[in-house]
Amino acid sequence: MPTPVAACQLALSDLDAEANLAAVESRVRGLPDEVAVALFPEYALTGFVADQRVAEVALSRDGPEVERLESLARESGTALLVGFVERAADGERGREALYNTTVYVAPDGARAFYRKRHLWEGEREVLDAGTERVVVDTPVGKAGILTCYDLNFVGDSAAFTRDRVDALFVVGAWPAAYSENWTLLLRARALDGVRWVVGAGRTGRREVPDARAVAYAGRSLVARPDGGIHASLDRREDDLVAELDPETLAAQRDLVGIYGE
C-alpha cells in the first residue's frame, strides 16, 4: 500500500529556535492525517550563521525542543525529520562541540540522530563533522539520512545501497544559485541506488546582520527509483505531499536486477 510522506518547505528565522519550532508545529498540524513521515529543512529549528552566534542558539539532543518534537510526533501520528545545530560535550579531547544534526522522531518516541559528515564552507569554521552514517526503520521501509552537501558523495550513496535502504531522506539548505545541482543530485541518488529519495529544502532568504545574505533554492522534491521526478515544488513555502508505492520500487529493482540473489 502506498505511504504518504511530506517535504515541508520553510523559510526559516535564523537564530530564533522558538519561532522555527512554532512554525514546524503549525505545519505538522496542518498536514493530512494520513501523512506518515514529514521532513523539514536543514537547520530547521535554529537556522545557521558561521560565527559564534550559532553557539548561542545551539540545542541539546535531550533538550525541551526535541521533547516538543517527540510530543508533536506522538500527537499527530507522524514521524518527523528535523535539523538543528546541536551542542554536545563529546568533541575531540573532551571539548564541547557543535554539529549540524538531524533528528528522526517516531510517534512511539523512538529517536535517531544523524550528524552531517561533509561540511560546507563556513560550517567547517564552527562545526565538527559527524562520523557515522545513519539508517532508520520508517513507515516506507529502511531509510538513510543525508544532509545537503552529503548528496555530492557517491561513496555514501554506495554504502546505503549495500545497506539496502528503500529510501533516502534528505534535508537541505541549498543556495538558489545552484538549484539545478540540488535537483540533479537528488535524482542521481535515487537512480544509482534504485530507491525513493525525498528532499526537503529551505526557501526564502537569510538576512542576518554581519552575515552574508543567501537566497535558498526551495525545490523540494520526491524522486522515483528510476531517477524521474515524482513530485516537486518551486520556491514557495508549501508542503509537498506524495505517496511512495512499494510496488513501484519493487518493479524498478526487478527491472535492473539489483539485489538479485
UniProtKB/TrEMBL annotation:
Keywords: Hydrolase
Protein name (record): Carbon-nitrogen hydrolase family protein
CDD domains listed in its UniProt record: nitrilase (cd07197)
PROSITE patterns attached to this UniProt entry: CN_HYDROLASE (PS50263)
InterPro entries the record matches: C-N_Hydrolase (IPR003010), C-N_Hydrolase_sf (IPR036526)
Domain CN hydrolase: 3-246
Pfam family, one: CN_hydrolase
Source organism of the structure: Halobellus litoreus
A GO MF label: hydrolase activity
